Amino acid sequence: MEYIMLDRESLNITLFVNFKRHQKVTKCWRKIDGKWCIKEIAFTDEWTEKEYEQLIGYLKNTIVTGGMVLGAFYNKELKGFASVEPSLFGKNKEYLDLSSIHVSEDMRGKGIGKDLFLQAKIWAKEHGAKKLYISSHSAVETQAFYREMGCVEAEEYNQEHVDQEPFDCQLECLV
């Protein structure tokens, strides 16, 4: 696996031609009456071409504004990526936002997500963060990954994330 910092010019739809964003979800975490519980919620997440185009726009903006986008390549094909936004936030300006981390379905379970997460933590620390903030998909498998990475429920919620994705789990991780 080769990890490469991506630049604005390298981000285009052909970069994602061999990337498979597919996740079959059967159970999700939900906070009900202040307590976390697992609910039977079934759906499939699969990005459309329009969603890839939107993603590319977001990632380009991350780079232009001084953030980080890291790609994981296997045989010169993108198989994973992570992005961290550049602006510190929170009442103590201690958080940086891990705005995305995804591994292609065909390469999950090989440590790529862990490597990307650890590199994101290093970058965040080098850029003044004390904590990485994650507004995470609530799927049981996704939450298991983040718990394995040392994430806990965020002490301070980012309201913009909550408003955009009300079913996401708001997490943090010390860097």
From TrEMBL:
InterPro entries in alphabetical order: Acyl_CoA_acyltransferase (IPR016181), GNAT_dom (IPR000182)
Entries under Pfam families matching the protein: Acetyltransf_1
Domain (N-acetyltransferase) ranges: 1-175
Protein name: GNAT family N-acetyltransferase
Biological source species: Clostridium yunnanense
